């Protein structure tokens, strides 16, 4: 049975590549972020983002500080770029790199970058899938074990929920990669960082990219695992 101890161990072995990659990526992010935080920059994260946005004619996009660490994000619905406390006022290579990345998302939004538009449309489905996918699987599997026919559709609805999350992650990859590429180009073209600082910026953004790859791999493997389980690919799970 999938929810047995054996099933859990099988699942963990199946997911091991994604979990190991995620652990390595988080370690890499923290290491590169710590190193880049010690490298001074001529502007703070907020000032760098403001300069990039204003240069693109996006004076309507506001910048706000937000509590937490690595909580930086761009809110396309409110047209607000939110930077964590360690990025907003910090004048470091790490801060301007992260701020420029988020500003890159604002530029994508302004230019109606297709993958971003699709990603934003997919957010409700991804949120629904992540919130209810496992619940539907659990209920459906329990019903199927008791011979209740309605359990099978619930199982596949649960798998569909996980599929929505995986689809979102796949769409998100080009969005994040493009934002990082924009950030690197903008920081150089606007003279915000020099070649020496750019080495550290690249380190932070490249490490962050691996976290998105790990999340995508984990989502895809999760879908494949459950599909195999409920199509007889692993009858002992």
Automatic annotation (TrEMBL):
TM stretches of this protein: 7-27, 121-142, 154-171, 207-227
Residues in coiled coil: none
Keywords assigned by UniProt, alphabetized: Hydrolase, Membrane, Protease, Transmembrane, Transmembrane helix
Matching InterPro entries: Zn_peptidase_2
GO biological process: proteolysis
One Gene Ontology term of the molecular function aspect: peptidase activity
Listed Pfam families: Zn_peptidase_2
PANTHER family with a match to the protein in the record: MEMBRANE PROTEASE YUGP-RELATED
Protein name per UniProt: Putative membrane protease YugP
Organism this protein belongs to: Lacipirellula parvula
Source organism phylogeny: Bacteria, Pseudomonadati, Planctomycetota, Planctomycetia, Pirellulales
